[in-house]
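TA notes. Do not distribute before section.
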Amino acid sequence: MSTGNFDIAVCIGRFQVFHNGQLAILRRALAIAPRVVVILGSALQARSPRNPFNWEERAQMILLALPKEDRERIRFVPLRDYYDPHRWGDAVRKAVAAPRGARVALVGHRKDATSAYLNDFPGWHLEDVGNQGDLHAKALRAALYSSANVDASLAAFAHQVPESTTEFVRAWSQLPFLENLRAEWKALSAERAKWQAAPYPPIFVTVDALLRIGDHVLLIRRGRHPGQGLLALPGGFIDERETAYQSALRELQEETGFSLLPSDMRAALKEVRVFDHPDRSQRGRVITHAHYFAFAAARLPEVSASDDAAEASWMPIEQIGEFEAQFHEDHFHILDSFLNITDAGC
């Protein structure tokens, strides 16, 4: 074990739910450095079965598990998912803001492939706390969703989390979030069950259409799980006898009613990008082809939601950043990739 020769210790995680293994990591960080920076990943995202708690709630959950003198030594930094390891790593370094020459320790545990990020910070000492037992936040969340009885859910994982976490989740469960998260989790679980007999894990191919007219883009609110009620780009699965481009046009028309001559749409297509991060969708492994169509400023045509969309509307690009926490999965990231929303400070 290290003996306190570091200036800053860094802990990175989603902490959904904060459990005893993560508490051990945090205690090691507090033992080896006077200042601790906790990076709260997947911040600024909509609530989902994978991310039920916002970053402020996670920070509170962590603080409640610590004595007062330790709480004052911790700085929390919320960090969005960039789905780009280089950009994400740069954002972590900027957030830590270590002075030149500072001795920085990254505290964590190499548990599986999801821990590969621990190798992305040359110059920082890696403090591996080792295996803390069979603790999995995913299983803890499943216990919370699988029973309508909150007390039964909490009893299922009480020995794996600090007592303060149990009490925090008990109080949080009275807020108007859990029922919808349970419905979302059940829908996702039912969908995955359809593929359990497949010889290999399924890989889905989808399309999305980013349609821009002047300084507006066309968005929908999803009418079904997963992501019911959240903002998204029009899109969906590729049909068996369609190209990705044909599917993008069909989904755009089906969900919003937007349709122009094929020649006009082809002329407006500026770029197609593939988004294939393994964690971009809670359905499983989903690879999407995002088609970016751009037209000069003009009168915005009327649109009408149908099919999987509950609502279709035009949003000014300058306002998209205000709605980041209302977007389905990585759709804000897709918009940011094409439109440089975060770089523009929107």
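Switch to the second chain here.
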Amino acid sequence: MAEIRSCPRCGVPDYITSEHLWLNNGVIVQKRDERARLAFIDCENLDPLFSNLEDIIGMPIERIIINASRRGTSIYYNRIMPQDAKEMLNMGELDPIPVMNTAFEMIRTTGYGSGEIIELNDEWRSSDFVLTMSFIEPCSVPIVCGVVGAGVQVILGLESSITYRELSPRLYELAVYKGENPPELSERLRWSEYRHSDGNTELERCPGCGGPLALSDFKWDMDRGVIESQSTGRHMALLSPQMIDAIFDDLEYELGEAVPKAIVEAQKRFVMTGFYSVDEVSDVASFREMLAIRGLGELRDMDISRKKLHVKLDRAALHPLVVGLVQGYYELATGIESAAEWEISDEGDLEVNITPV
């Protein structure tokens, strides 16, 4: 496992601050391609969120999540991989294992967990079986399966199907086989590109690396591929909102217009378990910084009382998750059952109103 260099002042890996930009408007982007947005989010709620969705909807959704994650991540890999490397891989002139290991190093740094190839089948070009790998502490099991499938698709040029089994708590073995994915899935993929507009949220910067100083509140454990909040112990990850949006889009396409409300309800249920603290929204300035560090948008307005909670978030990302988060905060703070209404502008600004039922 390669050593990952970090800033001596704040402890954040060089890859994070050299390849990503925290802008002045609550947005995180890739430095090499500023059209690609990211979000630094709590990921321990993702699999419970998906489980809550299954309970609400009444049917399994794991295959939908894996396929959407694979397609969304494939776009990212295709953008960052040099064309000559793709051609050399396709012609068999480049060993794919170091390339795949580099991809796994990258996702380890961004909090997806730690993956390692156990076996790459020497006959993968002609055999159905491609590879097996181990994965510890994945940020989300189906999302990681999709990420691995995207690596196989872009690096090996193969469409794939993936199975997994849990060997021990938080340790999984993934098996990758050749497979076919319906072409209509790619045809309906929505991939919105970020267009910059200035804001007024300036984050304090680390004098060593220039990244947000607030990132020093998190611990990067690279042996495990885990980013943890030192104050709450939460597992964090730097994920693509477009990938998560692709999952939500597929769920809505397959299951109907009730899905966004189900996502909000599932997120609210998770917030109500006590994983979050109402102290995080008691102060407007702190809540604005928390949202900006996570790349979820720029808080323009917040008004909270027992009678309502109103939030306006410019350039918002992951809209239904944010709505569920806000509604959960309201119910935790007041103990009152509520209803949520929200509007999304053409520019992606989000306005949320939470009121007692």
